[in-house]
Amino acid sequence: MFNTLSKICFLLMIIITSPRLLAESSPAVILHIEVPFVELHSGPSEGYPVVHVIEKDEDVIVLVKRTSWLKVKDKRGIEGWFHEDDLLGLSQYGKALKQGDDFQQNFKNRDVEGGVMYGDLEGANFYNVYLGYAFTPVFSAEVSMGKALGNISDSNLYEVMLISQPMPDWLVTPYIGIGGGIIDTKPHSVLADSESRQSTLMSAAAGIKYHIARNFLIRAEYKLSLALTDRDKNEEIHTWKIGFSVFF
Amino acid sequence: MENRFQRIFLTPFIAASTLLLAALPCSNSANAAEEEVDRQVQVKADVERRQIFDDLLDSENFEVGLQGGMISIEDFESSGWLGAHIGYHITENFYLKARYGQAKGGETSFEKLVNSAPLLTDEQRELTYYGLNIGYNLLPGEIFFSKDLVFNSIFSIELGAGSTEFAGDEQFTVNVTANYRVFINDWVAWDIGMSDYIFDTQVTGESKTTHNLNFVTGISIYF
Fold first, then answer.
1. pLDDT single digits (tens) A6-65
2. Contacts of residue A116 in chain B, CB cutoff 8 Å?
3. For residue B113, what is the DSSP state?
4. Is the CB of residue A90 less than 8 Å from the CB of residue A31?
5. Rounded CA gap, A174 and A196, in Å?
6. If I label A140, which of A9, A106, A130, A234 is the partner at 20 to 30 A Cα–Cα?
């Protein structure tokens, strides 16, 4: 036990003290200040105090970017963070700069999207993770893995869906989807008949997505699934859920 | 008589007004030309802007962390806790954190007092939690260790949901977390956290909601 701990400590020491190898390999990004001054905060947030000011015609090297904030260093070794909106007052090799990524455009042209959702599946607590890929701004496919934790039984759901969002330009984009998968239901062990059963699912879903910030969106969905059982009657499953996801 | 007066007074007037009318469209087009020049000047001021290529920048929005600490499992004593997380920083204010943790429950007071068969098997006493939190950076700040040593810090609150496996059952779990990080440098942070894991359990017969308080400390690395 002590041996493992000391090994972990040793590894952590190496990680902390070693220079960043990956970061140093890419060429430096050097920017030129065009406005009278740019304020540098001590950390990557509006809440951190302004600790330095860099003046017009100075050059700075970009060290790190975290969310929308850039950390720069000038020739005197002064370091600090500014928001990417300030890039409008800077230039690179004599060319004026844009203020960072155009996320509205990126939202429309996103390829990969992954997220989590939480909601209600026939009275049980339901949550799932999903990963989607957009072939065009209108058509996408996604796989999802979900779990429903209820009073009587727990279920695992695995599904594949095809999704169409006919209005990708709208602020709130509606979508519809169809899909299929399996549901694996396991009654809680305290009940007498505790045999788990597996059924095929056929689903139709409708929902909305809202691009809230950067590469982040909120999503809400209603899904009607049909569980194809061995019994006389197929089971209808209604799922309501809300969640958020990140796209790249 | 009348005709002569007309000729004297009206003819120059008509001539002048004709001239004026002819001149008006002319001055109008002169104005338009000026405006056109103005517009061209404005267009010139709107310079073409370029994008810094994001792949040239070292974007550090991800975070991994390891923590150790303790958890007080309601009815089952306090025990050691080992946890890990992966985080993604969405904006300067919000982040997501996938979290995993495990502990092993002790004995209930009942089991100790009454010499009876144990309530749970050893395997059932293993507690594992996994889930996802969304965090909000509430209080950014700086701490001063000494005159020359200043570190950035941040206090965040998190709300999350997930699943706890304990006592041979899997339960939906909500957690409320207060998290404090001190940045040793740009990419290593000392992490202190306090969480309350809330879930239902049926171990003692009837279903009841339990609060399981958890204190952890560890290291987070940003990449």
1. 555 555 554 454 444 444 455 778 888 888 999 999 999 888 999 999 998 888 988 888
2. 132
3. H
4. yes
5. 36
6. A234
Segment B57-89, tens digit of pLDDT: 778 889 999 999 999 999 888 999 999 999 999
Domains of chain A in start order, with CATH, are 2-100 (2.30.30.40), 106-247 (2.40.160.20)
ipTM of the complex: 0.70
How close, in Å, is residue A145 to chain B by CA atoms?
14
Instruction: Assess contact for A246 and A218: CB atoms under 8 A.
Output: no
Residue type, B36: E
Burial class of residue A61 (count of CB atoms within 10 Å of its CB; 0-12, 13-18, 19+):
middle
Same domain assignment for residues B80 and B188: yes
Buried b (16+ CB within 10 A) or exposed e, A205-222: bebebebeebbbbbbbbe
Q: Taking a contact as any Cβ pair under 8 Å apart, which residues of chain A between 123 and 182 contact chain B?
A: 125, 127, 147, 149, 154
Claim: this prediction has a pTM higher than 0.80: no
